[in-house]
Amino acid sequence: MDQSPFRVVLSPEYDEQLKKQVMATIKQAVEEARRQTGIDSPWLNSKHAIAKWLKVTDTTVTVLIKSGMPIHEMPEVNKIMGYKREITEWVLSQ
């Protein structure tokens, strides 16, 4: 039995069309992943998200908050939010 690899040869126009389709699919998947993760959002929607973004523990975030790190509290829904720019500026000023 012949074990040679299977090969498909496309004409240049089909080759270019396939490349464009693959790139469009990849771009769509990346955009969807970015949307689902909120990676482009300027907000961090929990103490844990702040900790993850800063690469520290939740306990460290609590200490940083007590030390003056800016956060936005929404007591009516028991939520803490962090604005990435404010946190970055505060960390750099320490």
Map the helices and strands.
Elements: H1 12-37, E1 43-44, H2 47-54, H3 58-66, E2 72-74, E3 79-83, H4 84-93
Helix pairs in contact: 2-3
Describe the protein's architecture and organization:
The protein is mostly helical. It is 56% helix and 11% strand. The protein contains four helices and three strands; from the N terminus they run αβααββα. It has a three-stranded antiparallel beta sheet with strand order 1-3-2. Strand 2 and strand 3 form a beta hairpin.
Keywords:
single chain, 94 residues, mainly alpha, 3-stranded antiparallel sheet, 4 helices
Helix-strand topology string = HEHHEEH
Number of helices: 4
Cα gyration radius (Å): 23 Å
Helix/strand/pairing category: mainly alpha
Average pLDDT over all residues: 93
Strand order, largest beta sheet: 1-3-2
Residue ranges: pLDDT <50 for 5 or more in a row?
none
Please summarize what this structure is.
The protein has 94 residues and is mainly α. It contains four helices and three strands. The longest helix is centred in the N-terminal third of the chain and has 26 residues, at 12-37.
